[in-house]
Amino acid sequence: MAKWTRLQLAAALMLGLAGPAAADQTTIDTDRATVPVMTALGMRELPAQPQKIVVLDIAAADTLAALEVPIAGLPSRLYVDYLNKQQAEAAPMGTLFEPDFEAIAGLAPDLIVAGGRSSRQVEALSEIAPTIDMTIWGASHVDLALSRLRSYGALMGRPAAAAAALETAFLAKLEAARAAVDGRGRALIVMTNGPKVTTYGAQSRFGWLHGALNLPEAVIEQPEATSGDEAQTAKAAEAATHGEAISFEYIAQANPDWLIVIDRASAIGQDNQAAAATLDNALVTGTEAWKKGQIIYLDSAAIYIAGGGIQSMTATLEQIRAGFAVGG
């Protein structure tokens, strides 16, 4: 049985999960080397090669799976098919927003990896086991994702070549996609949710596609927020996270050369109106993107649910490259 810290033991005893054997194991093995890991909350020194890991972030699960790291516990639903094997082999640990604390404590993990949707639970999860917030966010999306890849490789004791091979493959896709979009016009990233449409600009959660690929935005200029305008600042933050709700008239006015589409309903397994049906109206069909057949429907679950995972990002870049190769 894994050794427990006093904090873990206390939490488990409260839940009635620690047996007599656990009571004799109130310290962790401190003989193992530690590895410095940059998290969303700063640098952490963690014991190397944790044996039992609970992962409550799909991007982290994506990258750890690519490194062939065994995962002991995962959310009860991952939404991405390429992680089906890991899902089948792991114990269910609740959901991303509502982890099952009793199940996690019962598993007695050496490490809990949170991030994104589960990041608000980091403090509470830390009462059970060492917990790191590996959220990937902001303008440095690609750099952060690659940093996470290297950190996971070092922490989990994977050969440096394993992480390097995944990074090399990603960078090759990045260069190929960058070459494919070069000089091909402006793009508008939109996400549909049934009949609703939002747009995501360069500073948004999907904005790395613009920044990393040097892909110009097709946007309608908005008035800049004045200094101290808290309402405008809050609106900008909301737009970065959840996108900015737009009308079909907005799309027509922006008149993008390319439409890059994410179908949220499809990503989370809902049977709402499909993105292609939502966008098939007179205003959108009048755009250059529609008339030239330059619409790219991304694997929505991969980018929306597992965004930042090395497998997700590599696959998204290949979709972008392939889409621009056949367009117009």
Average pLDDT over all residues: 86
Radius of gyration computed on alpha carbons: 22 Å
How does the helix and strand content classify structurally?
alpha/beta
How far the N terminus sits from the C terminus, by CA atoms, comes to 60 Å
Instruction: Quickly count the helices.
Output: 17
The side-by-side strand order for the widest beta sheet comes to 10-9-8-11-12
Helix content percent band: 40-55%
Uncertain runs: 1-31, 230-238
Order of helices and strands: HHEEEHEHEHEHEHHEEHHEHEHHHHEHH
Describe the structure.
This protein is α/β, with parallel strands linked by helices. The protein is built from 17 helices and 12 strands. The protein has a 5-stranded mixed sheet, sandwiched between helices. Strand 6 (111-114), helix 6 (122-125) and strand 7 form a beta-alpha-beta unit. The protein starts with 5 loop residues before the first helix and ends with a helix. Residues 1-31 and 230-238 have low confidence and may be disordered.
Give a topology summary.
Blueprint: H1 6-14, H2 20-23, E1 34-39, E2 42-47, E3 53-55, H3 58-66, E4 73-74, H4 84-89, E5 91-92, H5 101-107, E6 111-114, H6 122-125, E7 131-133, H7 141-155, H8 160-181, E8 187-193, E9 196-200, H9 208-213, H10 230-242, E10 244-245, H11 248-254, E11 258-263, H12 264-267, H13 275-279, H14 282-285, H15 288-291, E12 295-297, H16 300-305, H17 310-326
Parallel strand pairs: 3-6, 4-5, 6-7, 8-11, 11-12
Antiparallel strand pairs: 1-2, 8-9, 9-10
Helix pairs in contact: 7-8, 8-17
